[in-house]
Each structure stands twice: as C-alpha cells, then as structure tokens.
Specification:
This protein is α/β, with parallel strands linked by helices. It is about 45% helix and about 15% strand. The chain has a domain of about 240 residues: Rossmann fold.
C-alpha cells in the first residue's frame, strides 16, 4: 500500500525543520485536497509565524493578557485535523490499516468529523463520519465536500451516546476501522506536543519581542473530546504553577454536578467524561451559558462599529477578528476571562486559550438570531459587550483532590459499563505516570515516521 509523505510531531511543532523541498511544495500548492498539506497541520502560517490574537482589556475587563491561538489557518479550518492525522498515523504504525479497502469511521460532533473527511482520502482511505443531526448545516456541507459518507444520529451536541450506539453497530463489519477521538491517545499526544508546545513557544516569542512580559499562568479549554486541554499538561510540566482550566456549558454541566442536557456550543459538552482527559491535572472548572457564547460570537463577527464606538477598540485590531471566532472559541474566551477574575490575575500572568475554528461554520446560527431578533442593534451590542466585561453567573468549581477523584470515577459509566474497558485500565488513568508515559511516546512515533520516509 502506497502511503503519502507523513510529517513528524517535531516538523508540525516547528515547520522550519521540514525538508526544504517539502516545505516549498506545501506553500506552493493551491489545491486544498493535496496530501502535501498534511505538513501544514500547524499553529503557524506559511510565513512560519504563529496565528494568534491578544484580546484588548477594553473588551475583557481584566488586567491579565488573554492570548488566543487561532486555528482557522489549519487545513479544514480547525485544529481538529491534527488529532485526526495523529490517530490515523498511529493506527497505520500499529498495523491496523494494512487493508487499503478499510473505511475510517470518525465519531464526532463536527470538527473532528470534518478533519476525518479530509485526512482519510489524503492518506488513501475512505471516510465515514457519524455526527448528530442537529449540528450546523455548514458542518454537513464541509464533510460532504471532502467526499466522506455521513450517518446523522438523533440529537444535538451532547448526544454522544447515540453516536457510540451507531459506531458499535458499525464495528461489526471488519472493513470499518473506528478512529474514536474520545479514547485514542493520538488525540492527547497531538495536543500535548503540538498545541502545548506551540503555546509555550508563542509566549516565549512574545516575551522576547516585548509584546508581553510574563509566564503562562493558565491554559483554558472547553472539553469536547478533551484533547485540546492536554496542552495544559505540557505547560504545567514546564511551569508547575500554571493552572489548567476546563470549560463546559451551564446547560450540560457534566463534570460540575454530573449534569446533562442539550446546548448550542457545537464542539464541546458531550455529556460524558472522555477517556483521554487527564482530570487529575485540572485545577478549575468554569461553566458558561450557551446563549451568551452564541451572542458573543455575533458581536465579534458583526459588531465592529459598536465595539469601536463603545470601547474605543482600533479599527485595525477589529479587522483582524473577521471570521476568526466560532461559538466554542467565544466559550473559551469567556472561560479565560472568568479564570482571570477568579484568580485575580495581573498583567504579568498570561492566559492562553484557543479559537478552535472560525466563523465559516456558523453563518446559519447567526441567521437564526437575525430571524428572531433582527440585525444587531446598539442595545443588543451593549448587552453582548457586558457579557464580556462584567459577566456574572459563571459556575466555578475548584479541582480539589476529592473533586478530581469524582471526575475520574465518572468515566466508569461510559467506558467500563458501555464501552468495555476494564477496571484495571480505568484505575491506571488515575496515576500521573500514565500520562507522562503517553506524552513520552512522541519521540518513538517520530522515529518510526522518519524510518518510513528513508
């Protein structure tokens, strides 16, 4: 079976390490379906510069700088393409995909599925995406445009149990190879090494250029598959005082109080604690309101005139926000603001979070607001501005050892009772060495990839 050229973790963390001819081909290719774009799965752009935005305090109302790493430049427009590639690559190395006729199955609530629809054919396989029927129309369109098959399951973002039920049926056919982001540690390793490593390098660069001064005081991420929050493990390993903060919807407070429910924040809040979430390392949980996130996205996308008039934010700054922030991105930003307030962080305490995708997945969501409320008015903009600057109603929970143990125990119901994991496997996840061992496997994987290329 002929495989495409595959990048290593180090080449994605620092694209300048890629062979010159490969880097040149990746930059020159204008075909979005060209497999060479596997080498562009990076937090940097074609100029090898990080894509990020520093939110002005006029918007956030806090002293601590909030740095948002932006994923809209990834192939497919979301960083989820990274863990897809990582999981498929590890399946290849393990000999699980030796049959070219294999069909890769991607359980998802959106962006992982879009990534699977793109990655599968780029690596020579067919792709099938299983996702809830109530996800945005743009998500379904992108998946179809990349040539993948779709199975739409009942429900919304939080109806992952229905996805699992469907996938368990698909497992009965030997051609279907399940790429489950919620349990495969390729997801964890990508974000530990690439997202966490990039965050560390970005903050070092901002210090060296005198843009900011300070260390990473917190990494903030909502949990969908809970892959992205693995970046916090990397940052905490480099700076033990760094806080790891998880975010979930008030409408589906699974970790907060074993809660449940539907919500509008596509990409997070999946009503279970995922296998790849290192809950013992999480310091704080923040719950945010889903409607506030949707309205906040509308403000950042459509409210440029209001933000300039009411807050005095410069036009050139506002111009850089166009199409950058999706719903879960705003969720992360609100979680970061709540973190700064909770810990009373100062100017030298830098908070890093991520914009997991851009606005291109959500015009239909904003159109629903237009149909209900009409265009964004000054009164509506002031309400949305207030949700950033003076937000109240956050639910906050400290990650005490007792609370972390409960978060860990909640994995039992999905993974032992429903998905066939053993108690021994569950208990192993409680040990810190389990997670450090998972992160350490990246060098071995890189060596195997380089050997395949030689």
């Amino acid at each position: 079976m002929t495989l495409p050229l595959m990048p290593t973790f180090q080449e994605l963390l620092d694209p300048s390490l890629q062979p010159a001819d490969i880097r040149a081909r990746a930059k020159a290719s204008t075909d979005p379906l060209d497999p060479i774009h596997l080498f562009r799965i990076s937090w940097t752009n074609d100029e090898d510069q990080f894509e990020y935005r520093i939110l002005p305090p006029e918007l956030t109302g806090v002293a601590a700088p909030i740095v948002v790493m932006c994923a809209y430049r990834f192939p497919t427009g979301s960083h989820k393409v990274g863990p897809v590639y990582s999981c498929v690559r590890e399946s290849l190395l393990a000999g699980e995909l030796e049959d070219k006729s294999a069909k890769l199955v991607f359980p998802s609530t959106g962006n992982f599925g879009i990534g699977g629809a793109w990655v599968g054919p780029r690596m020579g396989f067919r792709s099938l995406v299983v996702l809830p029927e109530e996800m945005s129309a743009e998500r379904f369109e992108k998946i179809r445009n990349y040539g993948a098959e779709i199975i739409a399951t009942p429900g919304c973002e939080s109806n992952v149990k229905e996805i699992y039920d469907c996938v368990n049926q698909l497992k009965q056919s030997p051609e279907n190879k399940i790429q489950n982001q919620f349990e495969k540690f390729g997801n964890y390793r990508f974000h530990y090494q690439i997202t966490g490593g990039s965050a560390l390098r970005l903050v070092e660069e901002l210090n060296q250029t005198n843009v900011l001064s300070g260390k990473v005081a917190a990494f903030v991420s909502a949990m969908g598959s809970a892959g992205t929050i693995a970046a916090g493990d990397h940052l905490k390993a480099a700076n033990p005082s760094c806080k790891i903060v998880g975010v979930e919807p008030i409408q589906c407070p699974t970790l907060y109080n074993v809660g449940y429910g539907g919500h509008q924040i596509e990409g997070i809040g999946d009503k279970h604690v995922t296998w790849v979430h290192n809950v013992r390392n999480m310091d704080l949980l923040v719950c945010v309101d889903d409607q506030t996130c949707v309205e906040g996205m509308q403000l950042l996308q459509e409210g440029r005139d209001h933000l300039a008039a009411e807050l005095g934010i410069a036009e050139d700054v506002l111009a850089t926000w166009d199409n950058v922030f999706g719903i879960s991105s705003v969720c992360n930003i609100l979680g970061a603001i709540a973190t700064a307030r909770h810990y009373e962080m100062e100017e030298d305490q830098i908070i890093v979070t991520v914009a997991t995708d851009g606005f291109d997945r959500y015009p239909s969501v904003v159109e629903r607001i237009h149909q209900k409320e009409g265009p964004l008015t000054q009164k509506g903009a002031l309400k949305r501005i207030d949700s950033f600057r003076h937000a109240s109603g956050y639910w906050v929970q400290e990650g005490t050892m007792e609370t972390r143990r409960r978060w860990h125990n909640q994995k039992y119901f999905t993974w032992v009772e429903q998905q066939g994991k053993s108690l021994e496997e569950l208990n192993a996840l409680w040990e810190p060495t389990f997670w450090s061992d998972q992160a350490a496997m990246t060098d071995e994987i890189d060596s195997a990839i380089l050997k395949m290329r030689s």
